[in-house]
Amino acid sequence: MGLRMRAVAALAAAGIAAGALVSTATGASAASNPCGAGYTLRHKVDIKKPLYGKEGYKPRTVGQVWWYQKDPRHSAPRVCAITKPLDTLVGKTTWLDVYLIGKDSSDRDSGNFKYYAGPVYVART
Predict the structure, then answer these.
(1) Is pLDDT above 80 for 124?
(2) Which band of pLDDT confidence, cut at 50, 70 and 90, is reported for residue 12?
(3) In which element (H, E) is residue 100 found?
(4) 112 contact partners, CB below 8 Å, separation of at least 6
(5) Which among 95, 119, 120 has a CA at the least distance from the CA of 32?
(6) What CA–CA distance (Å, rounded) separates 92 from 21?
């Protein structure tokens, strides 16, 4: 059986006053690989949220989930993910949520962040 993994991310367009205000990275380090050495960016997926505009409610992109994979030739295969807000929200405290569910494990990170939620990791089996 192939990789059975599901990643889900949610992002609210405005910060939610819950939990501590946390910054996980500076602007410079947020631009580098948040998963660490050996991980390669494999895919980016837009997060859409219905927002009200001139045409009424319609889905608008509010952020992205970025998936990374560690090269299995050098270590045990692992997958990593982060959730990033739109560029216009980077640096502003925003509610972010990211999680990965693997066959035998899961990992989640959520709260108020300025740059991204995560990284979260699971083994790829």
Answers:
(1) no
(2) very low
(3) strand 94-101
(4) 15, 16, 18, 19, 20, 21, 22, 93, 94, 95, 96
(5) 119
(6) 10
For 118, other C-beta atoms within 10 Å of its C-beta total: 27
Question: 111 — alpha (psi -120 to 50), left (phi > 0) or beta?
Answer: left
Report the first-to-last Cα separation within the chain, whole angstroms: 9
CA distances (Å), origin 44, targets 4, 20, 59, 73: 18, 28, 18, 23
Contact 78, 122 (CB under 8 A): yes
- Percentage of the chain exceeding pLDDT 70: 73
* Position 30, amino acid: A
Using CA atoms of 73, 79, 85, 90 in order, give the dihedral in degrees to the nearest 10.
-50
C-alpha to C-alpha distance for 63 and 13, rounded to whole angstroms: 9
**Residues 87, 38 contacting (CB under 8 angstroms):** no
